[in-house]
């Protein structure tokens, strides 16, 4: 019972200060007793308990010995609370100091690690600069080799900007529709004749519309006197330029080649396109690459040249397709 009483704030129950006199405590009791008396609060089930608590507080605090014992116990509890607060404050300060020291030690250790890592990185960079990166050298060599291959293809095929349009001529000659020899002009014979004037990349001979053919040369070395070619004396050719007509001053050295020698060295492949009955040579020739291209060739220019080469070949293929379609149309009309 006493333990329960000492755990309460009796002064607060009476509504007075700790230094209140006996008269002030009686006054406080009377004031509150009127409010919490059970007869005044029949609907409040705790009214009797509150009134008993109020009476007990007055009884203890108006007795000098009991009040002294209560005050001593109250002060002891307050001292414990204050002491705990002080300890909590010290613990908090100690904890904060400990965490601060740990954080400082961690930052110092991390700083030292960062310095070591930076030194290692600097040493590796210095080693790479001194010895060179083997992987980087391999990649650069691979790139140079790729550029050499591209340069070889570019130099093997003349640039379209420099050479102009692809040289093409149209051939006509007299022949009867039922002539199996086509007036004496076969694809092989025409190839042997006109290979004297330049390297032939495409040869189209119509097998339905007799007496008609188209010859396409590579874009360099076509002789300007090709129009002087007559073919068979008893059935001369009629030659007209379709595109890429060379200037008149083109060297005539190609005209002086031995015809029989060209026959021995030339390989002519032909096949018939379904529906068109048109003989055609290989559309693209092949040649040896240039193995001595300098690695110092400007990479940017080589890339542009290679792109120009690809575009040129695409346009040439499109033009060949158009010529084939034109030949097929003429065959159907014939």
TrEMBL record:
One GO cellular-component annotation of the UniProt record comes to: spliceosomal complex
InterPro entries in alphabetical order: DnaJ_domain, DNAJC17_RRM, J_dom_sf, Nucleotide-bd_a/b_plait_sf, Pre-mRNA-splicing_ERAD, RBD_domain_sf
Q: What are the entry keywords?
A: Chaperone, Cytoplasm, Nucleus
Bias (Polar residues): 262-281
Tell me the CDD domains matching this sequence: DnaJ (cd06257), RRM_DNAJC17 (cd12429)
- Where does this one sit in the cell? Cytoplasm; Nucleus
Q: Which residue ranges does the record annotate as region Disordered?
A: 147-166, 241-307
Q: Where is the composition biased (Basic and acidic residues)?
A: 249-260
What are the J domain coordinates in residue numbering?
9-74
Biological processes, Gene Ontology terms: spliceosomal complex disassembly
Highest rank taxon of the organism: Eukaryota
Q: Which GO terms describe its molecular function?
A: nucleic acid binding
Keyword Membrane assigned to the entry: answer is no
Tell me, what does this protein do in biology?
A: May negatively affect PAX8-induced thyroglobulin/TG transcription.
PANTHER family in the record, alphabetically? Answer: DNAJ HOMOLOG SUBFAMILY C MEMBER 17
Protein's name in the database? DnaJ homolog subfamily C member 17
């Amino acid at each position: 019972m006493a333990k329960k009483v000492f755990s309460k704030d009796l002064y607060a129950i009476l509504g007075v200060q700790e230094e209140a006199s006996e008269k002030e405590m009686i006054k406080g009791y009377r004031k509150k007793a009127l409010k919490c008396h059970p007869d005044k609060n029949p609907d409040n089930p705790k009214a009797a308990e509150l009134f008993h608590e109020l009476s007990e507080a007055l009884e203890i605090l108006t007795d000098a010995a009991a009040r002294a014992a209560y005050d001593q116990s109250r002060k002891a509890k307050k001292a414990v609370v204050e002491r705990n607060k002080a300890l909590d404050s010290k613990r908090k300060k100690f904890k904060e100091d400990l965490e601060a020291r740990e954080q400082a030690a961690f930052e110092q250790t991390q700083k030292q690690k960062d310095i070591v890592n930076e030194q290692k990185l600097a040493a590796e960079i210095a080693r790479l600069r001194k010895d060179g990166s083997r992987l980087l050298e391999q990649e650069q060599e691979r790139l140079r080799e790729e550029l050499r291959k591209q340069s070889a293809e570019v130099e093997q095929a003349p640039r379209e900007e420099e050479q102009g349009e692809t040289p093409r001529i149209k051939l006509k000659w007299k022949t009867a529709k039922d002539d199996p020899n086509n007036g004496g002009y076969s694809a092989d014979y025409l190839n042997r004749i006109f290979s004297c004037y330049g390297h032939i990349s495409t040869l189209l001979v119509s097998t339905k519309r007799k007496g008609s053919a188209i010859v396409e040369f590579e874009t360099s070395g076509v002789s300007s006197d090709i129009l002087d070619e007559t073919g068979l004396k008893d059935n001369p050719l009629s030659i007209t330029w379709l595109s890429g007509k060379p200037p008149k001053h083109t060297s005539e050295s190609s005209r002086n080649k031995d015809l029989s020698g060209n026959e021995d060295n030339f390989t002519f492949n032909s096949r018939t396109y379904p529906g068109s009955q048109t003989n055609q040579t290989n559309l693209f020739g092949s040649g040896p690459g240039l193995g001595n291209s300098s690695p110092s060739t400007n990479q940017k220019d080589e890339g542009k040249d290679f792109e120009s080469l690809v575009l040129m070949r695409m346009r040439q293929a499109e033009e060949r397709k158009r010529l084939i379609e034109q030949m097929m149309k003429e065959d159907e009309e014939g």
